[in-house]
Amino acid sequence: MELPSPCPFGNVELSSERERHIALRHPDLLPIHGARLAEALADPDSVRSSVRGRNARLFTKWFGDVRGGKHVVVVVASEGEPVCHRVVTAYIARRLSEGMVEWQRD
User: Fold this and answer.
1) Phi/psi at 38 (5° precision)
2) What domain count does the chain have?
3) 26 belongs to a structural domain
4) pLDDT tens column, 8-33
């Protein structure tokens, strides 16, 4: 899947393996709302730290037309030198409860 560039934290890679994982584990998101995944990366409402991975962030964006109004959450891991950003997973959430807010849209 082609992801927008740049996202607020740099270019983000979505491998075909991770895309298959998301489509398999979260079929309510992919393939139907694939464009929403890209929008959440390019123009997030907030970026949160992950409680599950110390090098991971959750990019979140609210969409009123996704399942009656839900957040799309994209988990991005950052590692290596130079730093590389990769999508780990993505899902649809009713509410946000995980992680400390690192950045939020005004």
Assistant:
1) -65, -40
2) 1
3) yes
4) 667 889 999 999 999 999 999 999 99
